[in-house]
Design a protein that fits this description.
heterodimer, A: five-stranded parallel sheet, B: alpha+beta, elongated
């Protein structure tokens, strides 16, 4: 297992995706693809099977929670970190029950965000 | 006498005699009536045809009725002047839109013997035009002397929805923007940005700062509009210039995220009077919604055309809107982005109809996608005070 995961980033805000892509690429991760809604996230996951999927909860067309449910049914080994802006604790809890690896608040300072993702990957 | 047709719940109605007999079952219980009339919440008792046989004082006050006589025999939608209640002969519960009504669905569940609670986003006909209500409806089965009834409680949750909106959507959106703003600043400070990307990052910081201010202003504007405090300022505009400004505001890679934005070649260029801020909010929302509804690679098209005494702006995207969304799209708290969101299309309709003297409509087919149209008079009538 590599020290640096391959990633798919799913968030409807392009600014957030660019921010995460920049800091995680600089840390050694390889960003395989991006998605702007849950449906695209599912499609990219199936196509590319990244080591890690960073999945925003609130997205149009299909929410991250819905996408997670479908991905975990088809790929129980998938490693998914949920991204959340506000501590929506009930939804986050449900996502963890569905099999998400962990959750990450998007307002986490970038150095800690990078460390969190790498640590989550290495300990999985 | 034949029963009117229905596209959802039964249109069958009780006879006048049956209604009076059912009313007497409850009115004869003095303690019961006194207690209900002391409650501050709306309580309505419906018979098996979903018709009112008893209502407490709070219910009569909520519906603007002077006595129970005026309420007798009416269904909930008819009592509160739901705009769909008069669309079909069968009345409340019998149109296509009623399939997605929380009130009708809760009552139907209670008729199956289950206590039900649903939220009801509804547009009613008020003296000032259409108004949006956010209601919570509880419907419970009750059997009296072997006859089935539904006891319905109604609560106005507009304040709760506004609070939820504020906390979830507005703060969520502001937090996203502020997070990205801080993130780009941190990336520049951490030296992780290549020289070739630096200017792009600085431009994004500039746009994100504008975005936060715009989001706060849009929210303040909608609150003021709903309170009747907004005063439109009509100015001379040119349709093509106006639309080009909207186009330029959204024709950016970070806004489009892989979609294409086009300005129709046939845009009319005419002079008209409107409030550029409010109009920009409406057409901007239409554009933003169309972008979000389409997928990377697809085109969103803006255009405007001239009709007698009217200018019409339109925004097209190739995505089809399914029925459940089409029938709810202008309801106040409806959103396709999950619970606790959704004032975009509502605010488009509200600002257009209440303040800009216009009208809004949309068309959506699988073959040609979805187009929203907003039409405004070239010369608005004298502006009335919003009471």
């Amino acid at each position: 297992m590599s020290d640096f995961p391959t990633l798919v980033l799913a968030d409807d805000e392009s600014h957030i995706r660019l921010m995460m892509k920049t800091v995680l690429s600089a840390a050694g991760c390889k960003i395989l693809a991006e998605a702007s809604n849950g449906q695209e996230a599912m499609a990219r996951y199936k196509e590319l099977k990244p080591d890690l999927l960073l999945l925003d909860i609130n997205m149009p067309v299909m929410t991250g929670e819905e996408a997670l449910s479908e991905i975990m049914q088809e790929f129980p080994e998938a490693k998914v970190i949920m991204l959340t802006s506000l501590a929506d604790s009930q939804t986050v809890e449900h996502c963890l029950e569905l099999g998400a690896l962990d959750y990450l608040r998007k307002d986490t300072p970038l150095p800690q965000l990078k460390d969190f993702v790498l640590e989550a990957w290495r300990s999985s | 006498m034949t029963c009117p047709t229905t596209r959802f719940a039964s249109a069958l109605r009780s006879s006048r005699e049956a209604l009076m007999r059912e009313r007497a079952l409850f009115e004869s219980q003095a303690f019961f009536c006194q207690t209900l009339n002391l409650l501050p919440d709306v309580v309505i008792i419906l018979n098996n045809c979903r018709q009112t046989v008893y209502a407490n004082q709070a219910a009569l006050d909520f519906c603007g009725l002077k006595s129970l006589d005026e309420a007798m025999g009416q269904r909930i939608g008819e009592l509160i002047a739901c705009k769909h209640a008069s669309e079909s002969e069968g009345g409340c519960g019998t149109t296509e839109s009623c399939r997605y009504c929380g009130a009708v669905n809760a009552i139907l569940q209670s008729q199956d013997g289950k206590a039900a609670q649903e939220e009801c986003r509804i547009n009613i006909k008020a003296s000032t035009g259409e108004e949006a209500l956010d209601l919570r409806v509880w419907a419970n089965p009750l059997v009296v002397d072997g006859e089935p009834f539904s006891v319905v409680f109604v609560s106005n949750i507009a304040d709760e929805k506004r609070k939820v909106f504020l906390e979830r959507i507005f703060l969520h959106d502001i937090m996203n923007t502020a997070t990205a703003l801080r993130g780009f600043s941190q990336l520049l400070n951490m030296g992780l940005v290549q020289e070739s990307e630096r200017e792009g990052f600085l431009t994004r910081i500039d746009h994100l700062s504008d975005k936060i201010i715009n989001e706060i202003n849009a929210h303040r504007q909608l609150i003021a509009a709903e309170r009747g405090e907004l005063k439109p300022e009509f100015k001379a505009l040119k349709s093509k210039n106006f639309l080009t400004e909207i186009f330029d505001a959204y024709n950016r890679p970070d806004m489009l995220d892989g979609r294409k934005l086009l300005l129709s070649k046939d845009c009319c260029d005419i002079d008209f009077l409107s409030d550029p801020t409010l109009l920009g909010r409406v057409v901007g929302n239409m554009t933003k919604n169309a972008i979000e509804a389409s997928t990377p690679g697809e085109c969103v098209t803006l255009g405007c055309r001239l009709f007698p005494d009217e200018v019409e702006f339109f925004v097209h995207n190739p995505t089809y809107m399914p029925e459940n969304i089409r029938l709810q799209v202008f309801n106040r708290s409806f959103s396709t982005k999950g619970s606790g969101r959704g004032l975009g299309t509502y605010s488009m309709k509200y600002l257009t109809e209440k303040y800009l003297q216009g009208h809004i409509r949309f068309e959506s087919t699988e073959a040609s996608g979805t187009t929203f149209y907003v039409g405004y008079p070239l010369q608005p009538l004298a502006i009335k005070e919003i009471s």
